[in-house]
Amino acid sequence: MDVIKKPTEAKGKLGILMPGLGAVATTLIAGVEAIKKGKSQPIGSLTQMSSIRLGKRTENRNPLIKDFVPLAKLSDIVFGGWDIYEDNVYEAAVNASVLELHQLAELKTELEQIKPMSAVFDPNYVKNIIGTNIKKETTKYDLALALMKDMEKFKAINNCDRLVVVWCASTEKYIEPTNIHTSIDEFEKALKNNDELIAPSMIYAYAALKLGIPFVNGAPNLTVDIPALIELSKQTKTPIAGKDFKTGQTLMKTIVAPGLHARALGVSGWFSTNILGNRDGKVLDDPENFKTKEVSKLSVLDEIFQPESNPILYGEMYHKVRINYYPPRGDNKESWDNIDIFGWMGYPMQIKINFLCRDSILAAPIVLDLALFMDLAKRAGMDGIQEWLSFYLKSPQTAEGLKPEHDVFKQLIKLQNTLRHMMGEDLITHLGLDYYQELVESM
Ligand SMILES: NC(=O)c1ccc[n+]([C@@H]2O[C@H](COP(=O)([O-])OP(=O)(O)OC[C@H]3O[C@@H](n4cnc5c(N)ncnc54)[C@H](O)[C@@H]3O)[C@@H](O)[C@H]2O)c1
Q1: Phi and psi dihedrals of 302, rounded to 5?
Q2: Which DSSP helix (H) or strand (E) runs through 116?
Q3: Are 47 and 369 in contact (CB under 8 A)?
Q4: DSSP per residue over 206-239, as a string?
Q5: Could you read off the pLDDT of 163-219 as tens digits, one per residue?
Q6: Cα-to-centroid distance, 278 and ligand 1 (Å)
Q7: Which fold has domain 249-356?
Q8: For the domain with range 13-245+360-422, which CATH number is right: 2.130.10.10, 2.30.30.240, 3.40.630.10, 3.40.50.720?
Q9: How far is the CA of 186 from the centre of ligand 1 (A)?
Q10: CA 41/CA 348 separation, integer angstroms
Q11: Whose CA is nearest to atom 29 of ligand 1?
């Protein structure tokens, strides 16, 4: 377990660097620039909009999270990133078609200034897209060194005090950990030998961690979820978190499923289907890339329902997830969930959820919060896997042998208690103990 100390103040500028300046990243950047200009509000961001209860309920202390812990201010954030396309952030945002053109026009000057650095890319890992803005170094080790140079140069040019890297690039094909991923020595040898099982996302992560820069994986790729990079994060005292931003359908699942479980209602089937037409959807149309996403999406329900402990209620549950690429929808994904449940005496019932969501609108505040909290964690001396940030992730990374917590409400309690602990406040379990304590004290 990390030794958490009170975080130091957030002095100077924070650079948020993103591999992948596509729909999610450009929506985040445009949103923050709009907020800085007073043209928008950070809706959906806990760091900016949520408060946290401190002490007993009678104390009435509910500061905003951003006033409770020393987070970087939005005005101190500088954005940058890498992409295989040469488009600047304004062009990429227009292309992503998430935000309205008139809104982007108001931010054009700021967005145009952010140009992608050349990417580390391997078409074996991401099919269906082709770009030209790609680094030419011949070994994966040299590519890592080139990324480190990019990071240091960005920091110097933009006069940043600290950096955070958040992977917002396409989902890579599914791979499983092998012996080259088991230790940092093996991993470095494999980087030099150009081993095909080192994915581009791992090269970005390695480069960041070597420099002590916190790294978040927003896609379902393996990336930092391997012993070698966990070891490196401990060595360089750097926080890591992953994987896969929890938006849309999975967010709904982790809201609804804990409720059914809490009421001991049975579930015989959960069929989830989606249509989406953005570039992410195009990449996921390839079976190898879809497999990575599918594994991430499928694990959620088993962990919440725990069929092995509740075989009568959940032992026979059939869970299916489909994603279909359907260009007319663009970033406005539509998902349908059919949930077959059963109650008293086994009588069946059905729940239908039809969520017309906007993927990147849900993802942008998650990226912001993760970046700000990871920077905070670094300043609080935390390293390795940041399980308290599971709240934001579809497939939370955990210490070896532990199962992830998927219940969004338990995840929130863990996040808030970590912040309380960091700042020397009492933890709150919501088990009513404080109520009984108050009762005893008042007697
Ligand atoms: N939008 C959501 O709600 C959501 C939720 C969970 C996870 N994600 C994940 O976040 C990622 C980004 O989503 P998006 O909608 O912005 O996708 P997107 O396709 O619009 O953007 C991804 C960008 O990454 C670039 N890219 C691909 N490989 C790269 C590499 N090796 N280095 C640098 N750039 C690279 C692509 O050119 C593209 O511009 C995807 O992996 C997606 O699965 C998104």
Answers
A1: -60, -40
A2: none
A3: yes
A4: HHHHHTT--EEE-SSS-TT-SHHHHHHHHHTT-E
A5: 999 999 999 999 999 999 999 999 999 999 999 999 999 999 999 999 999 999 999
A6: 10
A7: Dihydrodipicolinate Reductase; domain 2 (3.30.360)
A8: 3.40.50.720
A9: 28
A10: 43
A11: 169
